[in-house]
Amino acid sequence: MNEIEPGQTYEFDFFRPEDAEGVTRLFKTVYGESYPIKTFIDPKLLIEENAAGRTISSVARTPKGEIVGHGALFRSAPYERVYESGAGLVHPSYRGGKGIYTKLGLQVVDVAAKKYEIEQVFGESVCNHIFAQRGTAKAGWITRAIEIDLMPAEAYDQEKSASGRVTALLDFKTLKPNPHTVYLPAVHEENMRFLYSGLDDDRDFVFSQDELPSSVKTEIKTQVFDFAQVARMAVHDAGTDFESTFAQQEKAVQEKGMIVLQIWLKLSWPWIGRVVDLLRRRGYFLGGILPRWFDVDGMLMQKIMGQPNWEGIQLYTDRAKTILEIIKADWQQVGQGL
């Protein structure tokens, strides 16, 4: 246990190499030894990632140099100027109305993002409680997608806050606009317009009706997260060979035991509707939109092996509740609910 004397003063600052041991101890105190993002439980890796700018950590530090809070921006989307805001946590002795979590979040976005010329930020607010959701909503971030059953309950054993797999919202904030044209799949045209509502940027909407091009070769980059049993497949290009190429990728990740399959697609394709139809026939349902994901916008589709933990989802905003209704209806329509 990472015992830290309560009641000390603390300052908010960017990460220094000498903070690495304290940050990793904090993560192990809150989450145990099995936190799925290795950067935050390996001091050497944490130093390397911060030095490279792939991770930008902020900390709450006591006069003794102890780390009582942490938040970060880090790359997890295909476009290098889109960063995820996350890895936020506070030592148990420094919780309870002190505002550390909120102030770290503000430093991460208001200071770090500007310093590093980041163009879009997003966060994954877990749905086994509403604490993080409430904070992002009050900060003006808007939910655009929901990742069903993203994390296993085991990730929350230390705090005993989940009884089944945990869903997460994807909440976005634009820092540098990039107006462009997006194509709406026919099956989701109405839903997509709702998902885009209130966007802090401009888009031109066009109905998707093109066929898959024979001149384009499908390119899919896959990430596998063994601990979470999640596979993420980013489709950078899709042509007439999409269905056969995707089938091979899907089979490979299923053979590795993945039970949550996520697909990232580009809404800049005039043929996106055809790709969506092919995936729906394979049991994939809507997850939402992903602004600036590839620099151009993306969309999330997903497939769950088994019955999702719908009952374990707690939501704070009416918007998130409506998006969940849309997603669950599509899950039922593609046959996942049978």
Number of strands: 14
Helicity level, as a percent range? Answer: 25-40%
Q: Report the CATH C-level class of the largest domain.
A: Alpha Beta
Strand arrangement in the largest pleated sheet: 1-2-3-4-5-7-6
Percentage beta strand: 25-35%
Q: Please identify, by name, the CATH architecture of the largest domain.
A: 3-Layer(aba) Sandwich
Radius of gyration of CA atoms, rounded to a whole number: 20 Å
What is the string of helix and strand elements? EHHEEEHEHEEEHEEEHEHEEH
Domain count: the total is: 2
Number of helices: 8
In whole angstroms, how far apart are the ends? 46 Å
Overall pLDDT confidence: 93
What is the molecular shape? globular
Q: Could you name the CATH topology of the largest domain?
A: Aminopeptidase
Decide which structural class fits the backbone: alpha+beta
Give a quick rundown of the structure.
With 338 residues, this protein is of the alpha+beta class.
Keywords:
Aminopeptidase, 2 domains, globular, 338 residues, seven-stranded mixed sheet, 8 helices, 14 strands, five-stranded mixed sheet, alpha+beta
Question: How would you explain this protein's 3D organization?
Answer:
- It is a single chain.
- This protein is an alpha+beta fold.
- The model has no long low-confidence stretch (mean pLDDT 93).
- α1 (20-31) packs across α2.
- The strands form three sheets. Strands 1-2-3-4-5-7-6 form a seven-stranded mixed sheet, with helices on both faces. Strands 10-11-12-14-13 form a five-stranded mixed sheet.
- The N and C termini lie far apart (46 Å).
- It has helices at residues 20-31, 43-52, 100-115, 131-138, 189-196, 242-255, 272-281, 318-333, and strands at residues 11-14, 55-61, 67-75, 82-90, 120-126, 142-151, 166-174, 180-184, 203-207, 219-225, 230-237, 260-266, 285-294, 296-304.
- It has two domains: 1-118, 3-Layer(aba) Sandwich (Aminopeptidase); 180-310, Aminopeptidase.
